[in-house]
Amino acid sequence: MTTPTVAAPAAPADDSAAQIVSLYQKHKKIYPRSVTGRFVNWRWGFVWFTQILFYGLPWLMWGERQAVLLDVVSRRFYIFGLVFHPQDFIYLTALLLVSAYSLFLFTAVGGRLWCGYACPQTVYSEIFMWVERKIEGDRAARMKLDAAALTPTKLWRKTAKQAVWIAIGLWTGFTFVGYFTPIHTLAAEVASAGMGPWETFWVLFYGFATYGNAGFMREQVCKYMCPYARFQSAMFDKDTLIISYDTARGEPRGSRSKKADPLALGLGSCIDCGLCVQVCPTGIDIRKGLQYECIGCAACVDVCDEVMDKMNYPRGLVRYDTQHGLTGMGLSRGQVLARMFRPRVLVYSAILVLICVGVGVSIALRPPFRVDVVRDRGTLARQVDNGQIENVYRLQLMNATEQPQTYRIAAEGLPGLQIADTAPITLGSVEARWVTVSLHVPSETASAKGPGVHEIHFTVESQATPTEEAHRLREKATFVVPR
């Protein structure tokens, strides 16, 4: 890993003069060169996959509703055939654990695979740079255009690029908000200029974030803002596949003709063309070794392989390899891949499988409704008509299905325990409702049990429908007999 160095301030020429040295280096714009190759194809495959998924999911319908909708206002979260409530927060925790262990696993195996191929910052930077190349040209043309004086040609190219960038950013913001507000409703509001203030704010906010991060900040987000670049080394070891330059084969580097014999010239395979630096989106030189700025996009691998093909040298001067594979241990490619299945990788994989299986089983066995029992703190235990003792409870019934359901409530645990109102309760599709329930016990039971807190149980049963079987839930509560 390389660390930046700051030059020490020069000593003043005399006692009357002092030199001011800035500790901040001016940012130099990076002009990545376009490249072709297998890893570029993989990267664009992930760009297409992630963006079709992101932009397309909100428009996908599931019956009469949006297939994926996080309805924060109604506190209902729809994911295809599943409906979640805030009480299902445990599944969000499981999702975060799956994401974390997946990141640990992929990083331990192949380095910054997430950063190089699927991170939104990388994906949108690729899209924005593609637009830039189509309008302004490749690296040399863009550098020449930026250095030229303002002309009508430069003005229209810059304006067209900015207009396309803004359009992509706004569409991204609109799509993101469409996961929280039904996107068909949101589209109608946009068409009629009737979008609410919060929807407007978040569309502009995420649109501006996409426009700024992918259009202007780009590699600065990866180098200075993303914390992953700082702690990635904690997940690397000497058997992690990383983008590597084969120093033993490439050095000493130097230019030469295609027909020259590098051994006769005392040179390695690297012709010092600098293309690996020109294609790097973060502007680093991979020949200096592993650096925290490297996002693992493998653009340098593709361009170096092209150069090796032109020089009739074997490919792989810059390649995915491990530190053990580069240290002269004599490991074959198969041995390098076999060493990837080391204990930490197996542990990450086992934990990931267990979490996924556990979540899947939990969702499959999840009951179609939920019940929460809360004592009504506004009404104390009291004596009512005929000497009976009354306790009042509030039950929250949540229908997790998308069909109307009818429920019956019963209670047990004390002799003679009765519910004041035994009428069934009907809830609509994914409806949640608080229901007040009064329980009575005869005075004889209260006298026999004595004052204090006594355990009881509520039983809530859904009535069977032609398409669904009946389900029953049992919740514990307490009945208070006053002194």
Describe the structure in your own words.
The chain has 2 domains: 339 residues, no CATH class; 113 residues, Immunoglobulin-like, CATH 2.60.40. 42% of the residues lie in helices and 18% in strands. It has 18 helices and 16 strands. Strands 8, 9, 10, 12 and 14 form a 5-stranded antiparallel sheet that branches. A 4-stranded antiparallel sheet has the order 13-11-15-16, with no helix packed on it. A 3-stranded antiparallel sheet has the order 3-4-5, with no helix packed on it. A hairpin with a 5-residue loop joins β9 and β10.
Keyword list:
Immunoglobulin-like, alpha+beta, 4-stranded antiparallel β-sheet, 18 helices
Annotate the secondary structure layout.
Elements: H1 38-56, E1 61-62, E2 65-66, E3 68-71, E4 76-79, E5 82-84, H2 89-110, H3 113-118, H4 120-136, H5 139-147, H6 152-177, H7 183-191, H8 197-217, H9 219-225, H10 228-231, E6 242-245, H11 247-250, H12 262-265, H13 275-278, H14 299-311, E7 318-321, H15 323-326, H16 333-338, H17 343-364, E8 369-375, E9 382-383, E10 389-399, E11 405-412, E12 418-419, E13 425-427, E14 432-441, H18 443-449, E15 452-462, E16 472-481
Antiparallel strand pairs: 1-2, 3-4, 4-5, 6-7, 8-10, 9-10, 10-14, 11-13, 11-15, 12-14, 15-16
Short overview:
A hairpin with a 4-residue loop joins strand 3 and strand 4. The chain is built from 18 helices and 16 strands. By secondary structure, it is α+β, with helices and mostly antiparallel strands.
